[in-house]
Amino acid sequence: MAKEVAIEKRAKISQAQQYVLLAVLGASIFLGVAISLIFYFIKQISFNSEVIAEEDKSIVSYSNAIRDIGVCKKPKGSIYSDEELKNCRPDSIDVSSIPGTLRANIIDNLAANTALNSVPKESSSGCINPFTGKKYSYDELNEIYNNADTDDDLVKASELIQSCSALRIIPDAIPAFRNEEALLSSLNKIFLLTGIEPETLSPTGASGESNYGAMLKSISVRLSVESETPTTVGFLENVERSIREFNIERATIEWAQGGKLVLQAQASAFYMSPSELSETTQTIKASKGTKR
Fold it and tell me: What stretch of H or E contains 223?
């Protein structure tokens, strides 16, 4: 009887040991899984925090660029909200509301310079005051801009200043894109100013980089003139005085019957290559050994 009780106790003890071993094993597995999950979530939180921090830097950078250039009015907070960007109208902003920005500095320091703006652009019919029949003066243009009540009036006043200001000399001399029609129009005005008609005037279709840098591109054009000697010489002088820069690459001058002078030339004009802005993508990886 005692032997049977001892065997039964030993069996129970062995069973209890198995239960304890299983419990310890289960607890160890649970603890290992819990620690792994903790490290995983810590890594995920750290990674997401890093991504959010980089996104915040990009948003702040965009907002600072918009504010510094003067595209929109100053934001109510530290960055522009979606609603502020949606309602932003760059052409209708009064520069007095964006002091210290690039646009304000340009207008204050250049566009407001009476020496530059005292003579509006002559070739623009829109610069003629319909009431006086004379060209707008700088003071008149400035008064129109300051008296604009609505956003639409401010846009129209801004466009009028841009078209009439003597600052138009810069984009007129070196356009911002390739425009063969505008080039031929400029040469045609020189012919009309000289009082002659060209024998031939056509673009060659060739273009390339100039000797002044990669940003400055060239466009070629051929022309032929046959006229009296003083007239042909006058044409060359007008080309030299033109606001549009021309580089005569090759030219032949021959005497023709009747004392006329025949000029055949190939010339190049210049324009700025368009500047392209592109977004950069930054890849952030969770692995420590990888590069960003």
Answer: strand 213-228
- Looking at the chain, list the stretches that DSSP marks H as alpha helix, in order from N- to C-terminal side: 2-69, 82-86, 102-106, 114-117, 138-146, 151-164, 169-173, 180-194, 229-241
Ramachandran region, residue 182 (left: φ > 0; alpha: ψ -120 to 50; beta: rest): alpha
Gyration radius from the chain CA atoms: 38
Cβ contacts of 126 within 8 Å, gap of 6 or more: 160, 163, 164
Annotate 250-282 with DSSP letters as a single string. Answer: EEEEEE-GGGEEEEEEEEEEEEEPPP-------
Phi, psi of 118 (to 5 degrees): -65, -25
Residue 227 three-state SS: strand
List of residues 6+ apart from 253 with CB closer than 8 A: 232, 261, 262, 263
Rounded Cα gap, residues 162 and 170, in angstroms: 12
Tens digit of pLDDT for each residue in 146-183?
A: 788 887 887 788 777 766 766 666 666 777 777 788 78
> Is the CA virtual torsion 142, 147, 149, 153 positive or negative?
negative
DSSP, collapsed to helix, strand or coil, labels residue 204 as strand
Phi, psi of 277 (to 5 degrees): -105, 130
pLDDT in tens, 244-290: 888 888 888 888 877 788 888 888 888 877 666 677 777 777 665 44
Q: List, as one string, the DSSP characters of 28-42.
A: HHHHHHHHHHHHHHH
pLDDT score, position 275: 66
| CB-CB contact of 145 with 157 (8 Å) | yes
DSSP letters, 96-125, are GGSTTSHHHHHIIIIIT-HHHHSS--TT-G
